[in-house]
Specification:
By secondary structure, the chain is of the alpha/beta class. The radius of gyration is 38 Å and the shape is elongated. Helix 9 packs antiparallel against helix 12 and helix 18 packs parallel to helix 19. Strand 4, helix 4 and strand 5 form a beta-alpha-beta unit. The longest helix has 18 residues.
Length: about 675
C-alpha cells in the first residue's frame, strides 16, 4: 500500500478522474480540466497497491488565508473500512502542518458517516451554511487546526491569569443564564466581576462538533455567537487524540456525547490549561484517578470558585487559633473539606435531605469573595461549619452547624459573639441568623444575647455607640412607636435602670450614658484573665485556655471579701496585675457586666458555681488560705468586651486625677463613677 502526491502523468490519474465522476452525486461535479489543474499543482494524493487505485484526496492551497482546503476525499467501495482516509489525511497534514494554519472542508450536514470520519480524525465543525443547491440542505464547515500561534494566541499563552476550560454543559448553562438553576447546578457565579481579573475561560474546539449536532439551527448559531465571550483552546490535535484514547477507561460509552466528553477533557489536558470545570457527575466521580494520571484539576463551578478564592486569599485559609485555645483552629473551607463537612454536618436527626443542605452551602460558594465559609477544627477534626455573608447593613449567617462535642454550647456562644463583633467592626447594624436546625440550648443562647425570632429568622440589632436614653430611637425606631421616653420618665429609678439594662443586653454592646449602675475596677491575675476572657493572654501560652471557660458568655471570678462589697447589676473594668510574662499587665484589658455577687463559705460557693469559671477546688482552698469556714466572694459576670489596646496604669492615673480622684495601684477592687468608666471604656475601644 503506497501513498503519494501525483500529477496528470501518473499511470493511475485517469482512474482518479473515473472514481470522481462515479461519485459525483455526493462529491459534486468536477470537469476533467479541474482534475488536471489540481494534478499540475500536485494537489492530488492517491493511495494504491501499485496496480489498483484505492482512493484519492484532492485539495487546494489557499495562500491568502494560509490554509489547505479539501475538495474531494473518495475511497473505492471495496476498500472502505480499512482506515484509508486516515492515511491520506496523515500525508496531507505532514506536508503542510509546519507552514499553514490548518485544513478546511465543507460537507453536507446529513452525511452522517462523513461527519463521523471528520470528527474522529480531529476536525471540528465551525459552522453551518445553506447549500447552493436547489435542495433545502446545509453544509457543515469543518476545520483541522495545526496549532500555529499568531499574535493574539501568543498573547493569551503569556497571560498571567488562571486558565480554566469550561465543559459544554457549563457553556450551555451560561448561555441560558435566564433559567434559574439549583445552586449546586448554577454556573452563573463563574461570570462574577471579581473573577474576570483573575481567570481566563477557554472552550474546547470539540464544542463546535456538539453544536453541529443541535437540530435547532437558531439555537446552534446562538451558541456559536456566545463562544465569543471565551478563548478557544489551542493544541496539537494528534496529542489530543492520544489522550482521548487514554481516557476511555474512565469516561466510557460510545455515544457522540461520550466521545465529546473525552475530547473536551483531553483538550484541557494537552492545552496546558490548569482547570477543567464541569457539572458532569461521571467525570467528577472519576476525577481522583484522572488527576493522578494527568496534569489537570477537575472542579464543579462552586468548587472552582473556592479554589480561586483560596489562591487569592491564602492567609484566610491558614488555620488560626480560636479565641486563645491551643488545639482549636478556624479557617476558610477548602475544596477537599467541603463535601466532608456537608456529610458530617447534615442534620440527619431532623431528616434533612443532603441535596437541600448542599444547595444552601453551594449558594454561598457561588457568591465568591462576598461570602465566607469557614470550618472550626480540633486538630484535623471539624467541629463547626458555618458561613456568613453581607446584606444591606446586615451580617447574614445562612447556616451554622456544630458537632456534638463537649464544647458545643460554649463554642456556639463564642461564634455568635464573634459575629456580633464582626458586625460592629464593619459598621453593620444587624446580625441575622437563618439556620433552620437550632437546638433548644442554642435558641436559649440567642435569646440571652439579644436575638429575636421573626418567622424562623433570628435577628439582633447591634450598636457600639454610647448614647443618652433619649437617643434610642436613632438606633431602633420601634422605641419611638412605643413612647419609650415617656415610659422612662414615668418610671422609678430602679425600674428605669432595669428597662435600660435590658435594652443594653438586647442591643449589646450599646451603652446608655445615663444608666445609673455601679462601676468597678477589679484586679485579676494575668493567668486568670487569660483563662476567663482574654485570648490575647492565653493565646500567647503553649496550652491556651479551656474552651468551656473562655468561650462562655458567662463566667465566675472568686476573690476575698475585702475591702468593698460590690453590688449587682453593675459594670466591671478588669485590671491585670503585674506579670512579666505578658505585655497586657498593669493595664485594664476588658469590660464586663456584673450580674450577681455571692458571698458564702468556700464549699457552698464552689458547688453552686462549679460549672462556671476555671477554678478547681484546690484554687478555692488556696484563696481561703485553707480556712473553709471563712466566707469568700464570687462575682458572676457576662458579655465581656476585650480591648485590643489595653489602658496602661499611667494613663489610668491621669484619668483618675482629671476626675478628682487620687492615684491608685489597684491592689484591690475600686468603685468608680460613670465618668471615669466611660473615659476608660472609650479609650479601650479605640482601634
Amino acid at each position: 500500500m503506497q501513498v503519494e502526491f501525483v500529477n496528470q502523468h501518473h499511470p493511475l490519474f485517469q482512474e482518479v478522474i473515473s472514481l470522481g465522476r462515479k461519485h459525483s452525486a455526493t462529491l459534486g461535479f468536477m470537469p476533467e480540466g479541474g482534475f488536471i489543474d489540481h494534478a499540475q499543482k500536485r494537489c492530488i494524493i492517491i493511495i494504491h497497491d501499485k496496480s489498483d487505485l484505492m482512493g484519492y484526496l484532492m485539495f487546494r492551497v489557499v495562500a491568502r488565508s494560509s490554509r489547505i482546503s479539501i475538495v474531494h476525499l473518495c475511497i473505492k467501495e471495496e476498500f472502505r473500512g480499512k482506515s484509508i482516509p486516515t492515511k491520506l489525511l496523515d500525508e496531507l497534514r505532514k506536508k503542510y502542518e509546519t507552514t499553514h494554519a490548518g485544513i478546511a472542508l465543507s460537507c453536507r450536514a446529513d452525511y452522517s458517516n462523513a461527519s463521523a470520519l471528520w470528527s474522529k480524525y480531529g476536525f471540528v465543525c465551525r459552522g453551518k451554511v445553506r447549500s447552493r443547491s436547489g435542495d433545502e440542505q446545509f453544509l457543515n464547515k469543518w476545520w483541522y487546526d495545526f496549532n500555529k500561534l499568531d499574535l493574539f494566541n501568543n498573547a493569551n499563552s503569556t497571560s498571567v491569569k488562571i486558565k480554566a476550560l469550561l465543559d459544554a454543559n457549563i457553556i450551555v448553562k451560561l448561555r441560558d443564564d435566564y433559567i434559574i438553576q439549583e445552586p449546586s447546578q448554577d454556573a452563573r457565579p463563574l461570570m462574577a466581576d471579581w473573577l474576570s481579573d483573575e481567570v481566563d475561560y477557554y472552550y474546547a474546539p470539540e464544542l463546535f462538533n456538539e453544536i453541529s449536532r443541535d437540530y435547532d439551527n437558531e439555537r446552534a448559531q446562538k451558541t456559536r455567537n456566545f463562544l465569543s465571550n471565551f478563548i478557544e483552546a489551542r493544541f496539537e490535535v494528534a496529542k489530543c487524540k492520544n489522550i482521548t484514547s487514554q481516557l476511555i477507561p474512565f469516561i466510557s460509552g460510545n455515544t457522540d456525547n461520550d466521545k465529546s466528553d473525552r475530547v473536551q477533557l483531553a483538550s484541557a489536558i494537552v492545552s496546558n490549561v490548569s482547570y477543567f470545570i464541569t457539572l458532569d457527575k461521571g467525570i467528577l466521580d472519576k476525577r481522583d484517578v484522572i488527576e493522578e494520571l494527568f496534569d489537570i484539576q477537575i472542579y464543579s463551578p462552586q468548587e472552582f470558585i473556592i479554589e480561586i478564592d483560596q489562591l487569592i486569599n491564602k492567609e484566610e485559609y491558614s488555620p488560626t487559633r480560636l479565641a486563645g485555645v491551643s488545639f482549636h483552629s478556624i479557617s476558610k473551607i477548602s475544596n477537599t473539606e467541603l463535601d466532608i463537612c456537608i456529610d458530617k454536618f447534615l442534620s440527619k436527626y431532623n431528616s434533612e435531605k443532603k441535596s437541600s443542605f448542599q444547595n444552601i452551602v453551594y449558594a454561598e460558594t457561588s457568591k465568591g469573595q462576598n461570602a465566607k465559609i469557614k470550618v472550626v477544627k480540633v486538630g484535623t477534626n471539624p467541629i463547626a461549619f458555618f458561613a456568613y455573608d453581607y446584606g444591606l447593613s446586615e451580617l447574614i449567617i445562612p447556616f451554622i452547624r456544630l458537632d456534638d462535642t463537649e464544647h458545643k454550647q460554649t463554642l456556639f456562644m463564642q461564634l455568635i459573639s464573634d459575629f456580633i463583633r464582626k458586625a460592629i467592626d464593619e459598621n453593620l447594624s444587624k446580625v441575622v441568623i437563618k439556620e433552620t436546625f437550632l437546638s433548644e440550648n442554642q435558641i436559649s443562647v440567642l435569646g440571652r444575647m439579644g436575638f429575636e425570632n421573626n418567622s424562623g429568622v433570628w435577628g439582633k440589632t447591634v450598636s457600639n455607640r454610647i448614647i443618652d436614653s433619649a437617643q434610642i430611637v436613632e438606633i431602633d425606631g420601634r422605641f419611638g412607636e412605643e413612647n419609650f421616653v415617656d415610659l422612662l420618665q414615668s418610671s422609678c429609678k430602679e425600674e428605669r435602670n432595669k428597662i435600660l439594662l435590658n435594652i443594653e443586653h438586647k442591643l449589646f454592646p450599646l451603652k446608655f450614658s445615663d444608666l445609673d449602675i455601679p462601676c468597678y475596677i477589679i484586679p485579676i491575675k494575668a493567668h486568670w484573665a487569660g483563662q476567663l476572657f482574654d485570648p490575647n493572654i492565653s493565646g500567647a501560652t503553649l496550652f491556651g485556655a479551656d474552651p468551656n471557660r473562655i468561650w462562655s458568655i458567662e463566667n465566675v471570678y472568686y476573690r476575698n471579701t475585702r475591702p468593698i462589697t460590690e453590688l449587682a447589676p453593675g459594670r466591671i473594668l478588669w485590671y491585670v496585675s503585674s506579670d512579666k510574662k505578658t505585655g497586657r499587665s498593669q493595664a485594664i484589658v476588658a469590660s464586663s457586666y456584673l450580674d450577681e455577687v455571692m458571698t458564702d463559705k468556700p464549699k457552698i460557693l464552689f458547688q453552686k458555681n462549679k460549672y462556671f469559671g476555671i477554678y478547681e477546688w484546690k484554687n478555692i482552698y488556696e484563696l481561703c488560705k485553707k480556712d473553709i469556714e471563712t466566707p469568700i466572694r464570687a462575682l458572676r459576670f457576662s458579655k465581656t468586651e476585650v480591648f485590643q489596646n489595653p489602658i496602661k496604669l499611667p494613663l489610668i492615673r491621669q484619668i483618675f486625677l482629671a476626675n478628682g480622684r487620687s492615684e491608685n495601684t489597684f491592689a484591690s477592687p475600686v468603685k468608680v463613677g460613670s465618668a471615669i468608666f466611660y473615659q476608660i471604656y472609650k479609650t479601650g475601644r479605640e482601634k
